[in-house]
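Below is a filled-in request sheet from our internal design queue. Each sheet records the structural input a requester submitted and the sequence that came back. We keep these sheets so that new team members can see what a complete request looks like end to end.

REQUESTER: design group, bay 2
PRIORITY: normal
MODE: inverse folding
CHAIN LENGTH: 354
BACKBONE (tokenized):
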């Protein structure tokens, strides 16, 4: 602000410099330079007092405004916090809520078992691609050789959004995508070997063996001269690695639109070695999953020549596999959030008192 009176102008300059150095900005309003200006008014001839007094008041208003600004921006003294830390680290010990801390948690058994499954297939040369949790009708059915309005679609009753997006009922919805994406492998003389783990959804009546949300891992393998023997050997090798014992497998014919021929695979019961127990229903065998040779139409829709290349695929339920490994009797335990159930699978196997 420009002041006409030289005296006010000089005082404004001094006060402005002083204000910058003051810790308590309010002190400027009691500064001797300002008090002196007010005292000066009384000494002036009557005709000059009004103009001079107006400039002094303007200067005071300006200083008051600067003090208010400084006060509102005054930084508060706060101790630093680590915003990336779990919430309880930034709280004084006496205020800590009595809740579980991160180090008391453990990996969910399905995820640690999936890591084991992936490890076995990595060693067999497979690459993992995560499945989607929202897809479209074309990938869910059409790309897999389901004719429109075919009754086989009814076996995959799942959830649909208002926009006609589908919560996938099987990881096979990814087949067309990975066949297209990894087709280049075939051109380079390498196989397509993909594992597709993911969450899938079914509109099911819930019971000990049926959940609306569960996990599958799909296997897709394509190369020249691939036959059923390769499929059975691959999956038997996996099962023996997973259950760490020699197992027998057997197949029976089944129907899937996207594989031809299709099978249901059963393995010899890992608990009773075929003698019969409650896990296998005293039959010695456990039906585990569906599989088969990829239908030529599925290969064609992905731009792969079924005359030159053949392949196999399976879709295996992860929960079923894990339930058998640990003798878990009810699939609903996995999503129950029940800590008594989950802690049995923590690495330390420790029970915490909460
Ligand atoms: Zn058994």
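RETURNED SEQUENCE:
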């Amino acid at each position: 602000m420009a002041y006409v009176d030289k005296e006010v102008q000089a005082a404004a300059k001094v006060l402005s410099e002083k204000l910058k150095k003051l810790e308590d900005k309010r002190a400027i309003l009691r500064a001797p330079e300002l008090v002196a200006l007010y005292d000066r008014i009384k000494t002036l001839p009557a005709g000059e007092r009004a103009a001079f007094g107006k400039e002094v008041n303007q200067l005071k208003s300006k200083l008051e405004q600067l003090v208010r600004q400084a006060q509102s921006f005054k930084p508060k003294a706060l101790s630093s916090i680590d915003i990336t830390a779990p919430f309880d680290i930034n709280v004084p010990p006496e205020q800590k809520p009595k809740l579980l801390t991160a180090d008391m948690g453990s990996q969910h058994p399905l995820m640690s078992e999936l890591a084991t499954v992936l490890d076995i297939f990595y060693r067999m040369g497979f690459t993992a691609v995560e499945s989607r949790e929202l897809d479209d009708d074309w990938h869910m059915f059409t790309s897999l050789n389901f004719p429109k309005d075919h009754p086989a679609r009814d076996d995959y009753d799942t959830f649909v959004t208002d926009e006609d997006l589908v919560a996938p009922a099987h990881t096979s919805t990814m087949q067309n995508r990975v066949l297209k994406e990894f087709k280049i492998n075939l051109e380079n003389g390498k196989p397509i070997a993909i594992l597709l783990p993911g969450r899938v959804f079914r509109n099911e009546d819930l019971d000990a063996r049926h959940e609306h949300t569960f996990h599958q891992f799909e296997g897709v393998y394509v190369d020249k001269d691939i036959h059923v023997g390769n499929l059975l050997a691959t999956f038997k090798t996996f099962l023996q690695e997973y259950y760490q014992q020699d197992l027998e497998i057997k197949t029976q014919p089944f129907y899937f639109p996207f594989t031809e021929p299709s099978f249901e695979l059963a393995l010899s019961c890992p608990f009773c070695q075929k003698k019969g127990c409650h896990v296998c229903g005293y039959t010695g065998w456990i039906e585990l999953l569906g599989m088969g040779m990829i239908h030529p139409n599925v290969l064609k829709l992905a731009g792969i020549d079924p005359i030159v290349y053949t392949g196999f695929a399976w879709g295996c339920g992860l929960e079923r596999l894990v339930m058998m490994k640990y003798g878990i009797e009810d699939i609903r335990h996995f999503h129950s959030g029940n800590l008594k159930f989950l802690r049995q699978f923590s690495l330390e196997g420790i029970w915490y008192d909460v």
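SHEET NOTES:
- The chain is about 35% helix and 15% strand.
- Residues 46-72 form the longest helix (27 residues).
FILED BY: M.R.
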